[in-house]
Each structure stands twice: as structure tokens, then as C-alpha cells.
Specification:
Length: 242
């Protein structure tokens, strides 16, 4: 973790036994008066000084604001995956600074994946937070999960820019490679982009027809079938280097 995040509008204080405080003490080994990057979620990122109290708690006091990596103007709809992969999807999306992240049940996916306690318990928020802390940014993606691909597309439209460019990686019926699609559609830096990622089993013909009818271009990430989290990383790596 490269910065410490706190809930919005919360005091920058860590109680004894907090895992983040344990990290500061045992991994960073920050002494009294030392400096830590910290901030409130979706707020300002600061260099803070740390002070330890006799009760074992610690307080971070903002000293000066520093550059806070901005959000990546991107909406991602990705199929529910097995919990371990879903955790990685949440982490990496936040690490790259994705603006909006939607999970949906893929036609060829496992229905039980959507029933994971990862969502109902709110544990997903921890993985988003960890990804942002890794990237040293306070920005957390807006996250939702919906009941269908069509609903995911609707949600991306609601949350995104009306002039967005839309892509869906598909190994079987891609019209362009993802790299060539950039030269064809000529997106510019900071232009909003929507991406739909399917399950590892791919899209159905009905999925493809729906996406095409809604303005999505099918693109290729290569000849290999990628794991869902690998595909996400590949897509976001391209988008961050426009």
C-alpha cells in the first residue's frame, strides 16, 4: 500500500489493531513525526505527519497536498467471475483509476458467481480501496452490479459521456485488433471509452448482436483466450497509453 485511505469526511485516525496501522508500524516502520501519504476517499491526497497516542492509536495530520492521479475516463462492464478473479478485477480497475465499473451475469458464465458474499457483505469495497492505495490515489471507481448485459449497457450509458467510444473484446468475430481500432476511431487522450468484457467462455451470438446494435465495435486482444482479469489489464494498459 502506497497511501492510506480513510472513508469520506472521516478523521484521519487509526485505532490500535487496525491493519493499516500495523502496516505502518511493521512494514513501513514510520516513527513519530514521520510522513505518510494519506487522504479521504475521493478527496485530496496529502503528505501527512503521524503521531502516536499512548492508547496505541495514531493520527495523521495533513501537511501539504500532492498530485493525486486522476481518474481514467473509462466505463468497464465485466462478467461476474469466480471470487478470487473478481477480487483481482476490482483491485486492478481501481489501481488503473477506472471511473465506472459494472459487474453483470454473462450468458456463458456461472450463475453462482453473482451469489458470492463478496458483493452482499460489501467486501468488494475493500478490494477497490486496496487498488487505489496501491496506485497512491484517493479515487475509487463507482461500482455496481446488475442483472443482465443489456442493463450493464444501459448503466454505462447513464454514467458515461454521450460521445463515448464503445469496444468489446471478442476473439471470434472481432472487426479490428484493439490497437488498430484506436487508429480507426482516433480516440484522443481523456476521451471517455466504454469497454464490455465477457466471460472466459466468450459471448453468445445474441450478446454480439445486442452490443453491435448498441454501438459497440468488436475488437481483438490477440489469438489467445485470456483469463478475465488478464483481459482487463491488457485493455486498461492500452487505454492508459493513448
Amino acid at each position: 500500500m502506497n497511501c492510506i485511505l480513510f472513508p469520506e469526511n472521516a478523521q484521519l485516525k487509526l485505532e490500535k489493531g487496525d491493519q493499516k496501522l500495523e502496516h505502518i508500524l511493521k512494514v513501513l516502520r514510520t516513527k513519530e513525526g514521520g510522513e505518510i501519504f494519506a487522504g479521504n476517499i475521493n478527496g485530496e491526497l496529502n503528505v501527512c505527519t503521524i503521531s502516536y497516542a499512548p492508547d496505541g492509536s495514531a493520527t495523521l495530520t495533513p501537511k501539504r497536498a500532492i498530485n493525486n492521479p486522476k481518474r481514467l475516463p473509462t466505463g468497464i462492464a465485466v462478467s461476474f467471475a469466480r471470487p478470487q478473479i473478481a477480487q483481482r478485477l476490482l483491485f486492478e480497475a481501481a489501481c488503473f483509476g477506472v471511473e465506472n465499473l459494472i459487474f453483470y451475469p454473462a450468458s456463458k458464465g456461472e450463475a453462482d458467481y453473482a451469489k458470492s458474499s463478496l458483493y452482499k457483505s460489501g467486501e468488494y469495497a475493500k478490494w477497490l480501496e486496496r487498488g487505489a492505495e496501491q496506485a497512491c490515489s484517493t479515487y475509487i471507481p463507482h461500482f455496481e452490479y446488475v442483472s443482465s448485459l443489456e442493463e450493464a449497457i444501459d448503466k454505462l450509458e447513464d454514467l458515461g459521456d454521450p460521445n463515448t467510444i464503445n469496444f468489446a473484446p471478442d476473439i471470434y468475430e472481432a472487426e479490428y485488433s484493439f490497437a488498430d481500432a484506436f487508429s480507426t476511431y482516433n480516440p484522443v487522450k481523456d476521451e471517455y471509452t466504454n469497454i464490455i468484457l465477457g466471460s472466459e467462455r466468450g459471448f453468445t451470438n445474441a450478446d454480439r448482436n445486442l452490443m453491435r446494435n448498441r454501438g459497440y465495435t468488436l475488437v481483438s486482444l490477440g489469438d489467445r483466450v485470456l483469463r478475465t482479469d488478464t483481459a482487463l489489464i491488457a485493455v486498461l494498459s492500452l487505454l492508459t497509453n493513448i
